[in-house]
Amino acid sequence: MTPSTLFNEIQIYCKANANETLVKKHSRYFKEGYNAYGLSQELLISKISDIVQQKGVDFDTIEKTSYLLVSSGMYEEISFSIFLFKEYKKQFSAEKFDVIEKWFEIGIGNWAHTDTICSDLISVFLEKRIITYERMTDWRVSQNKFQRRAVPVALIKMLKYTNDYQPFFNFIEPLMMDSEREVHQGLGWFLREAWKKSPEQTEMYMMQWKDTAPRLIFQYATERMKPEQKQHFKRSRGNR
User: Fold this and answer.
1) CA atoms within 13 Å, Cβ hemisphere of 72
2) Which pLDDT tens digit goes with each residue over 166-204?
3) Distances (CA, A) of 42 to 53, 81, 100
4) Are 75 and 14 in contact (CB under 8 A)?
5) What is the domain partition of the chain in residue ranges?
6) CATH second-level architecture of 110-239?
Protein backbone atom coordinates (compact mmCIF):
# COMPACT_ATOMS: atom_id res chain seq x y z
CA MET A 1 0.00 0.00 0.00
CA THR A 2 1.52 3.30 -1.08
CA PRO A 3 0.66 6.65 0.54
CA SER A 4 -0.95 7.92 -2.67
CA THR A 5 -3.08 4.77 -2.97
CA LEU A 6 -4.28 5.09 0.62
CA PHE A 7 -4.92 8.80 0.17
CA ASN A 8 -7.06 8.11 -2.90
CA GLU A 9 -8.94 5.36 -1.08
CA ILE A 10 -9.81 7.74 1.76
CA GLN A 11 -10.91 10.46 -0.64
CA ILE A 12 -13.17 8.07 -2.55
CA TYR A 13 -14.71 6.87 0.72
CA CYS A 14 -15.37 10.42 1.90
CA LYS A 15 -16.98 11.43 -1.37
CA ALA A 16 -19.14 8.30 -1.46
CA ASN A 17 -20.45 9.00 2.04
CA ALA A 18 -20.78 12.78 1.84
CA ASN A 19 -23.70 14.39 3.65
CA GLU A 20 -24.48 18.04 2.97
CA THR A 21 -26.86 18.17 5.94
CA LEU A 22 -23.98 17.40 8.31
CA VAL A 23 -21.82 20.03 6.62
CA LYS A 24 -24.46 22.68 7.25
CA LYS A 25 -25.01 21.48 10.82
CA HIS A 26 -21.35 21.66 11.81
CA SER A 27 -20.25 24.68 9.80
CA ARG A 28 -21.60 27.12 12.40
CA TYR A 29 -18.84 26.07 14.79
CA PHE A 30 -16.06 27.16 12.45
CA LYS A 31 -15.92 30.88 11.80
CA GLU A 32 -12.68 30.45 9.82
CA GLY A 33 -14.52 28.22 7.33
CA TYR A 34 -15.51 24.57 7.15
CA ASN A 35 -14.40 22.68 4.05
CA ALA A 36 -15.93 19.26 4.59
CA TYR A 37 -17.69 16.26 3.06
CA GLY A 38 -20.11 15.75 5.92
CA LEU A 39 -18.80 12.28 6.81
CA SER A 40 -20.29 11.04 10.08
CA GLN A 41 -18.01 10.21 13.00
CA GLU A 42 -19.29 6.62 12.97
CA LEU A 43 -18.31 6.12 9.34
CA LEU A 44 -14.92 7.74 9.90
CA ILE A 45 -14.10 5.46 12.85
CA SER A 46 -15.30 2.41 10.92
CA LYS A 47 -12.97 3.22 8.04
CA ILE A 48 -10.06 3.79 10.43
CA SER A 49 -10.53 0.26 11.76
CA ASP A 50 -10.63 -1.10 8.23
CA ILE A 51 -7.47 0.71 7.12
CA VAL A 52 -5.22 -0.40 9.99
CA GLN A 53 -6.13 -4.03 9.30
CA GLN A 54 -5.18 -3.84 5.64
CA LYS A 55 -2.08 -5.67 4.46
CA GLY A 56 0.83 -3.37 3.75
CA VAL A 57 -0.31 -0.57 6.04
CA ASP A 58 2.15 0.36 8.78
CA PHE A 59 3.13 3.47 10.73
CA ASP A 60 5.48 4.62 7.98
CA THR A 61 2.63 4.42 5.46
CA ILE A 62 0.36 6.40 7.78
CA GLU A 63 3.01 9.07 8.38
CA LYS A 64 3.59 9.65 4.67
CA THR A 65 -0.12 9.58 3.90
CA SER A 66 -0.80 12.09 6.68
CA TYR A 67 1.07 14.82 4.81
CA LEU A 68 -1.22 14.34 1.82
CA LEU A 69 -4.31 14.31 4.02
CA VAL A 70 -3.43 17.35 6.13
CA SER A 71 -2.39 19.47 3.16
CA SER A 72 -5.68 18.73 1.35
CA GLY A 73 -7.62 21.19 3.50
CA MET A 74 -10.62 18.87 3.79
CA TYR A 75 -11.87 18.51 7.35
CA GLU A 76 -12.42 14.75 7.37
CA GLU A 77 -9.16 13.99 5.59
CA ILE A 78 -7.27 15.85 8.30
CA SER A 79 -9.31 13.95 10.90
CA PHE A 80 -8.24 10.69 9.24
CA SER A 81 -4.58 11.64 9.66
CA ILE A 82 -5.05 12.32 13.38
CA PHE A 83 -7.03 9.18 14.20
CA LEU A 84 -4.84 6.92 12.07
CA PHE A 85 -1.76 8.31 13.80
CA LYS A 86 -3.35 7.56 17.16
CA GLU A 87 -3.67 3.89 16.22
CA TYR A 88 0.13 3.63 16.38
CA LYS A 89 0.66 5.37 19.72
CA LYS A 90 2.68 2.42 21.04
CA GLN A 91 5.28 3.28 18.40
CA PHE A 92 5.51 6.99 19.19
CA SER A 93 9.04 8.41 19.34
CA ALA A 94 10.56 11.87 19.53
CA GLU A 95 10.95 11.80 15.75
CA LYS A 96 7.23 11.15 15.31
CA PHE A 97 6.48 14.36 17.19
CA ASP A 98 8.17 16.17 14.31
CA VAL A 99 5.40 14.85 12.07
CA ILE A 100 2.75 16.59 14.16
CA GLU A 101 4.80 19.77 14.12
CA LYS A 102 4.89 19.59 10.33
CA TRP A 103 1.09 19.28 10.19
CA PHE A 104 0.72 22.72 11.70
CA GLU A 105 2.95 24.10 8.96
CA ILE A 106 0.95 22.57 6.12
CA GLY A 107 -2.69 22.44 7.10
CA ILE A 108 -3.98 22.55 10.69
CA GLY A 109 -6.33 25.50 10.64
CA ASN A 110 -9.12 25.12 13.19
CA TRP A 111 -9.66 24.71 16.92
CA ALA A 112 -11.24 21.25 16.70
CA HIS A 113 -8.31 19.53 15.02
CA THR A 114 -5.90 21.41 17.27
CA ASP A 115 -7.63 20.28 20.44
CA THR A 116 -7.93 16.69 19.23
CA ILE A 117 -4.22 16.62 18.41
CA CYS A 118 -3.51 17.89 21.92
CA SER A 119 -5.78 15.48 23.78
CA ASP A 120 -5.23 12.36 21.66
CA LEU A 121 -1.64 12.69 20.45
CA ILE A 122 0.51 15.27 22.23
CA SER A 123 -0.77 14.09 25.61
CA VAL A 124 0.63 10.63 24.86
CA PHE A 125 4.07 12.06 24.04
CA LEU A 126 4.04 14.04 27.28
CA GLU A 127 2.59 11.37 29.57
CA LYS A 128 5.04 8.75 28.30
CA ARG A 129 7.86 11.30 28.65
CA ILE A 130 8.86 10.84 25.03
CA ILE A 131 9.17 14.62 25.00
CA THR A 132 8.86 17.35 27.63
CA TYR A 133 6.56 20.32 27.20
CA GLU A 134 9.63 22.48 26.53
CA ARG A 135 9.70 20.80 23.12
CA MET A 136 6.88 23.21 22.25
CA THR A 137 8.92 26.32 23.11
CA ASP A 138 9.04 27.56 19.52
CA TRP A 139 5.32 26.92 19.10
CA ARG A 140 4.63 29.96 21.24
CA VAL A 141 5.85 32.22 18.43
CA SER A 142 4.47 30.22 15.51
CA GLN A 143 2.77 32.15 12.72
CA ASN A 144 -0.07 29.62 12.98
CA LYS A 145 -2.39 30.80 15.76
CA PHE A 146 -3.66 27.26 16.24
CA GLN A 147 -0.15 25.99 16.92
CA ARG A 148 0.13 28.70 19.57
CA ARG A 149 -3.24 27.64 20.99
CA ALA A 150 -1.93 24.08 21.24
CA VAL A 151 0.61 25.08 23.89
CA PRO A 152 -1.79 25.71 26.79
CA VAL A 153 -4.29 23.10 25.62
CA ALA A 154 -1.61 20.39 25.53
CA LEU A 155 -0.65 21.21 29.11
CA ILE A 156 -4.12 20.52 30.51
CA LYS A 157 -3.61 16.78 30.92
CA MET A 158 -0.25 17.41 32.60
CA LEU A 159 -1.91 19.19 35.52
CA LYS A 160 -2.66 15.88 37.23
CA TYR A 161 1.00 14.92 37.43
CA THR A 162 2.24 17.73 39.68
CA ASN A 163 1.10 20.12 42.38
CA ASP A 164 3.46 22.88 41.27
CA TYR A 165 1.96 24.75 38.34
CA GLN A 166 4.41 27.65 38.33
CA PRO A 167 6.59 26.10 35.59
CA PHE A 168 3.49 25.81 33.40
CA PHE A 169 2.50 29.40 34.15
CA ASN A 170 6.00 30.55 33.23
CA PHE A 171 5.80 28.59 29.99
CA ILE A 172 2.51 30.10 28.81
CA GLU A 173 3.49 33.63 29.83
CA PRO A 174 4.71 34.70 26.34
CA LEU A 175 1.18 33.97 25.08
CA MET A 176 -0.70 36.04 27.63
CA MET A 177 -0.68 39.11 25.37
CA ASP A 178 -1.38 37.20 22.15
CA SER A 179 -3.70 38.97 19.73
CA GLU A 180 -5.80 36.00 18.59
CA ARG A 181 -9.14 34.95 20.03
CA GLU A 182 -8.47 31.22 19.63
CA VAL A 183 -5.30 31.53 21.69
CA HIS A 184 -7.16 33.46 24.39
CA GLN A 185 -9.74 30.67 24.56
CA GLY A 186 -7.03 28.02 24.91
CA LEU A 187 -5.30 29.96 27.67
CA GLY A 188 -8.57 30.52 29.51
CA TRP A 189 -9.42 26.84 29.26
CA PHE A 190 -6.04 25.85 30.69
CA LEU A 191 -6.30 28.34 33.56
CA ARG A 192 -9.83 27.19 34.36
CA GLU A 193 -8.65 23.58 34.65
CA ALA A 194 -5.64 24.65 36.72
CA TRP A 195 -7.92 26.67 39.02
CA LYS A 196 -10.21 23.67 39.58
CA LYS A 197 -7.24 21.66 40.85
CA SER A 198 -5.28 24.40 42.62
CA PRO A 199 -7.26 27.63 43.09
CA GLU A 200 -4.76 29.53 45.22
CA GLN A 201 -1.69 29.36 42.99
CA THR A 202 -3.78 29.83 39.84
CA GLU A 203 -5.48 32.92 41.23
CA MET A 204 -2.11 34.39 42.19
CA TYR A 205 -0.96 34.02 38.60
CA MET A 206 -4.18 35.42 37.17
CA MET A 207 -3.98 38.48 39.42
CA GLN A 208 -0.68 39.42 37.77
CA TRP A 209 -2.44 39.69 34.40
CA LYS A 210 -5.95 40.87 35.16
CA ASP A 211 -5.27 44.49 34.19
CA THR A 212 -3.33 43.81 30.99
CA ALA A 213 -4.21 40.46 29.38
CA PRO A 214 -7.19 40.11 27.01
CA ARG A 215 -10.50 39.82 28.85
CA LEU A 216 -11.56 36.70 26.96
CA ILE A 217 -8.87 34.75 28.80
CA PHE A 218 -10.51 35.67 32.09
CA GLN A 219 -14.00 35.04 30.77
CA TYR A 220 -13.04 31.43 30.17
CA ALA A 221 -10.78 31.07 33.21
CA THR A 222 -13.42 32.29 35.69
CA GLU A 223 -16.31 30.37 34.15
CA ARG A 224 -16.67 28.00 37.13
CA MET A 225 -16.18 30.66 39.78
CA LYS A 226 -18.93 32.13 41.93
CA PRO A 227 -19.92 35.74 41.11
CA GLU A 228 -18.09 37.10 44.14
CA GLN A 229 -14.92 35.24 43.11
CA LYS A 230 -15.10 36.63 39.58
CA GLN A 231 -15.12 40.16 40.97
CA HIS A 232 -11.46 39.81 41.96
CA PHE A 233 -10.48 39.48 38.30
CA LYS A 234 -12.20 42.53 36.91
CA ARG A 235 -9.83 45.18 35.67
CA SER A 236 -8.93 47.97 38.05
CA ARG A 237 -10.93 51.13 37.30
CA GLY A 238 -8.00 52.99 35.73
CA ASN A 239 -7.25 50.09 33.34
CA ARG A 240 -10.71 49.60 31.85
Assistant:
1) 23
2) 999 999 999 999 999 999 999 999 999 999 999 999 999
3) 17, 16, 24
4) no
5) 1-91, 110-239
6) Alpha Horseshoe (1.25)
